[in-house]
Specification:
Distance between the termini: 41 Å
Radius of gyration: 18 Å
Shape: globular
Strand order of the largest sheet: 2-3-4-1-13-16-15-14
Number of helices: 5
């Protein structure tokens, strides 16, 4: 089982204002800031990682908050929706919390699961979902968001595509997913190697406009593997299928491969190792600015540029 894809590892999105983004995810939604670092390619921009206590793969939503970038447009060729698992009976709490914070929401159901859909301050489309089967993951909790209602990590990610079939083939033939349902133009795929963060939905919409990456849109989704040995075996399989995939890249807290699937969504294969406690203790995660080693000599200059939180 461990030599296979194990559902979602993380999802990376774009925000505009770092302080607003940090407040929304840590205070309103009650997630833990697991790691505060900078963009590898733009050290003047933060890279935030929000998740549960230890940043378990399948709970991590990361952001590049580029100040002043403006709003993007979700559309075809993107991951357009993120679903978080929450406990049964928690919707009344979240509705009250959203009302208090003037956040619009809509209650619906997809594939027999209750959803509370809303957007973050930049327009990123999110849902709280009560899964059909109980989610045993232990959430990060705060005084305002206790365990009985807190988010437990990802339930699913939704891709919007002009055509479902080419991407479905990548999910089933390369990444080990199985189609498990269809409602109208929405197709659901499950990864049965793990029981959480293991659903991908595809919305097939030939008329959808192309998305534009900026604040409020997802940049890529990452699938989880145990380690870089498994990762490199999967790389061979993906390359043999004719997809252009990068070499292994060290992202400090995991190793990454990237390829763009036929529908246009950027996919990543990310490892569990070495994890977020590589350079901070579990208790101290997210409390200090951690820099990639090549940027340490410029720490004073970088800290002066990054906005206050």
């Amino acid at each position: 089982m461990e030599n296979k894809v194990l559902g979602l590892h993380h999802i990376t999105a774009i925000a505009d204002n770092a302080k607003r983004n940090h407040a929304f995810y840590t205070t309103t939604l009650g997630l833990r800031l697991v790691k505060k670092t900078v963009n590898f390619d733009d050290p003047g921009t933060y890279h935030f990682y929000y998740g549960n206590e230890s940043g378990t793969p399948g709970t991590i939503l990361t952001f590049f908050p580029w100040e002043g970038i403006g709003k993007g447009t979700p559309g075809a060729g993107m991951a357009t929706h993120i679903g978080y698992s929450v406990p049964e009976g928690s919707f009344d709490f979240w509705k009250q919390r959203f009302d208090e914070n003037r956040i619009a929401y809509e209650e619906t159901a997809i594939f027999g699961e209750q959803l509370l859909s809303f957007s973050d301050p930049d327009g990123l489309q999110l849902s709280l979902i009560i899964p059909k089967t109980a989610d045993s993951r232990v959430p990060w909790t705060t005084e305002a968001v206790p365990a009985g209602v807190a988010t437990k990590g990802f339930h699913n990610a939704t891709l919007t595509l002009h055509r479902a079939d080419p991407t479905a083939k990548v999910l089933t033939d390369l990444l080990g997913y199985r189609q498990t349902g269809q409602e109208g133009n929405r197709y659901r795929f499950v990864n049965e190697n793990i029981d959480t963060a293991n659903y991908i939905d595809i919305i097939e919409d030939p008329e959808a406009g192309h998305g534009r990456n900026a604040a409020g849109t997802n940049h890529h989704i990452a699938f989880r593997v145990k380690d870089d040995t498994v990762q490199m075996a999967l790389r061979e399989k993906i390359a043999a299928a004719g997809l252009n995939i990068t070499p292994k890249i060290d992202r400090d807290y995991f190793y990454s491969l990237y390829f763009r699937e036929p529908g246009g969504v950027l996919f990543e294969i990310a490892t569990d190792n070495p994890g977020f406690t590589r350079d901070e203790s579990l208790e101290q995660l997210g409390t200090a600015l951690k820099l990639p080693k090549q940027y340490e000599p410029a720490r004073t200059k970088i800290e002066a540029v990054l906005p206050g939180l």
